[in-house]
Amino acid sequence: MSSYREDFPIFKGSDVIYFDNAATSQRPRQVIEAMRSFNDSCNANPLRGLYDWSVRTTDAYEAARHAVAHFIGAERDCEIVFTRNTTESINLVAYSWGLANLHAGDEIVLTVSEHHSNILPWQMCARRTGARLVYMECEKDGTLPASEYESKITDRTKLVAVAEVSNVLGAVNPIREIADVAHRKGAVVLVDGAQSTPHMPVDVKALGADFYALSGHKMLGPMGIGALYGRIALLEEMQPFLTGGEMIETVTRESATFAPVPEKFEAGTVNAMGAVGLSAAIDYLNGVGFDTIMRKERDLTGLLLDRMRKMPEVTVYGSEDPAKHCGIVTFNIEGCHPHDVASVLDSEHICIRAGHHCAQPLMKYLGVSSTARASLYFYNTEEEVERFADALTKVRGWLGYGA
Ligand code: PMP
Description:
Elements lengths: L16 E2 L10 H13 L10 H20 L8 E4 L2 H16 L5 E5 L8 H10 L2 E5 L9 H7 L4 E7 L11 H10 L3 E5 L11 H4 L3 E5 L10 E5 L1 H6 L10 E4 L4 E3 L13 H17 L1 H20 L4 E4 L10 E6 L4 H9 L3 E2 L1 E3 L4 H7 L4 E5 L6 H17 L5
Parallel strand pairs: 1-13, 3-4, 3-5, 5-6, 6-7
Antiparallel strand pairs: 2-8, 7-8, 9-10, 11-12, 12-15, 14-15
Helix pairs in contact: 1-9, 2-9, 3-4, 10-13
The structure holds 4'-deoxy-4'-aminopyridoxal-5'-phosphate.
């Protein structure tokens, strides 16, 4: 039994097996308590207030910004812009940087395994600027061969937008190597960190990321808070994505001047309580330590893969090596629709994901329309993996296909 598990109120007295952590992770009481304490002690509108509660809210919000900066190795706190989630972070870059810097004939390089959140904003930019999308192909297990980024990133490339970890295969992309090639060609690198920040230490400088996007709700934090890291020189050049209150210096009837970064990108009242929760989530992750997190995920994934390999009707996608899954195990059961698999498992109190996982180009590349996905986190247990695997052996029978 994982001792961390006791920190998560949702598991108390519950027999639910939660294997949908790649979609949203659960929250420890430390995160909930940090938010409650903020709520009960100083909640007020931040940034502009001249009274104690507002000042304390502002301080808490800025402390959270510092925590995020430190967590991902940003040099300066002002390089962190709070957003709602990874999707909004990427859209901010697409609208503010992409539309201003991409032109007809330029190329945006992605991988075929990107989440729709890191495809659609670039399709929008391509449509509006005349730039072209170029896809790097991965191997079937998700590995991105060096020949792909060495050949597809060229002098025409202006942006390389790539996930650090695939939400379907769990494969880790060689960001540093990709960024080196991109920077040699003068391109900017955006990294989608939605699936990496929960599972591994991140250092945006060491990775060579110019932009880095993350979501709080996937890394023990609340929903509705995310962040964008941007290299200061890039952020300073960019026009705001949203405009309104809190992001201005002066406003006349006809025009406005904008506040410095990061306020320039944080129009309207910000999600201070979400930021406090994210900061507490970061403290919690650091307390557990990524060595422990990675070891636990590898062990649980290894156990699950061993059990699944003994089921001839089950196809597992991704690497043979449990260390190359980041806890994500995507699979299909012969003859069964993934939605039926997920529904029948739900009746056993097992939560998994089924569908295209917002990665339809990858589904097409894998030759499937959808898959089932179990995604594990460090608070899951061997007992849960065994119970899940036992249930998997019965799915075909439950669905009327015979055992
Ligand atoms: N990118 C990846 C790789 C993801 O897995 C997800 C969430 N499934 C996103 C982006 C989008 O995250 P959010 O919904 O928090 O914006």
